[in-house]
Amino acid sequence: MNHLAHALLAGDDDGLRLGGLLGDFVRGAPDPALPTAVAAGIRLHRAIDAYTDAHPEVLAAKALLPPPYRRYAGILLDMWFDHCLARDFGRWSARPLADFAAGVRALLRREDARLPPALRRFAAYMEAHDLPAGYADPAVLARALAGIGRRLSRANPLDRALPVLQALDAPLQARFEAFFPDLRGHAARWIEAWQGSPADGTHHGPLSPAGRGLG
Fold first, then answer.
1. Residue 131 CA, distance from chain mean position
2. Residue 116 in contact with residue 58, Cβ under 8 Å?
3. Sign of CA dihedral 150, 153, 157, 162
4. How many whole angstroms separate alpha carbon 140 and alpha carbon 80?
């Protein structure tokens, strides 16, 4: 899943949400200097990705993509599923998409000092393109796919993928709708287990009464 899904699936805890956004930008074990919730958010991000990769509906969705796009199915579905989530966000969240996306960007601004350089650069890109709300717009999605394609080391068709995804919109939407509730339940159970099993004796709920702030 991509940034919008990871932010939403982290729930109301900004520490988990920041960790979810960090997940694509860090490797290995989380830095022990990170707040407990942020480190847990990185682990949640990885649990979400592992569950997604193994889900039968996701595997079926990948099989819908024709060559040569199927080779990049993981990237394409991550992006397309964020598009599905964004364009029907009111179905999955009581919070308006624009407000939710602004909160994600505000979180990254507040925690700029914690961000690795790659995420700091991406945060600036998010500001410029109204992400993650912008993923509802096919034109924004097309630019994002082309940008990912340019960063890959070998030639690829990502800059031509949007029409292929749009042609498969109905079956991909059906797979998303069958899959995402399962993923949401998996993430909620993961968070519940983490909050209920403090291995280090620290508080594992929101980092402030409002669930805001990481300091």
1. 11
2. no
3. negative
4. 12
Helix, strand, coil content of the chain in percent (nearest 5): 70, 0, 30
Residue 153 DSSP one-character state: S
Q: Return d(Cα 22, Cα 137) in angstroms, integer.
A: 24
* CA 159 and chain centroid, separation: 21
* Helix (DSSP H) and strand (DSSP E) numbers for the chain: 10, 0
pLDDT digits (tens, 9 = 90+) for 122-162: 999 999 999 999 999 999 999 999 999 999 999 999 999 99
In the chain, where are the structural domains located? Answer: 3-196
Overall pTM > 0.85: yes
200, two tokens: 């280090």
Half-sphere exposure in the Cβ direction for 111 (13 Å, CA): 26
Residue 85: alpha-carbon gap to chain centroid: 11
Find where tokens 């030639």 sit. Answer: 155
